[in-house]
Amino acid sequence: MARKRKKPVERAAVPDRYAAFAEHPRFGQGPRVTGLDPKPSGAVQPGEALTVLHWHSPGRKRIPNTAVVANWRKQTFTVLPVTHYFDTARTCRDCGLEFIFYALEQQHWYEELGFSLDADCVRCVACRKIDQARAAQRRRYETLLHAPQRSDEESLEMAECCMALVEAALFSPRQLERVRMVLNATAATASSKLQKRREHLRERIAAFAARPAGPPR
Predict the structure, then answer these.
(1) What is the rounded average pLDDT of the residues 1-16?
(2) What is the DSSP string of 63-77?
(3) What is the pTM of this model?
């Protein structure tokens, strides 16, 4: 039986206000207009529905007419569940670009992935992927560093992870000494393929050393 293809997400023309926003791989750059624009409830009478909007989406950040209805039963337990999500404007912590944290993304985070409503999105999608890759490199580095034994290829992989973390300023430049130790230890036994990786690492060390010194931390 043929599988049904998912209907592609329709992207409207991007308003000028959002033309410089970081692009989302699924939703594009502009807001996703739904026509729903609830306002947070003030005092409510018995029997009236309460409208609760997320604390991380204050009025100045919410994009009008982009709300989707939340399923509060799927949210991680909280004293005051959120009833609607809005597309909200953000500034990426890492690259400084503005981006949209889409209402459908929030719905996925808080209802499908089980994230707490306290979790907020502070990076654009591209920077989130970089951050996730660096976290994976760090985990891999720690695993290889504490392994009782390592092959030459694993030692070189550890050195490459270490180098990447130094370049990202997550490790001190002093950690380059560990990279050099690995390069020296694998010099005699490295295959031609590993030799190429060793030479590339040496080039990265030289390029890093040639960087202009930044302001003291």
Answers:
(1) 57
(2) PTT--EE--GGGSPP
(3) 0.76
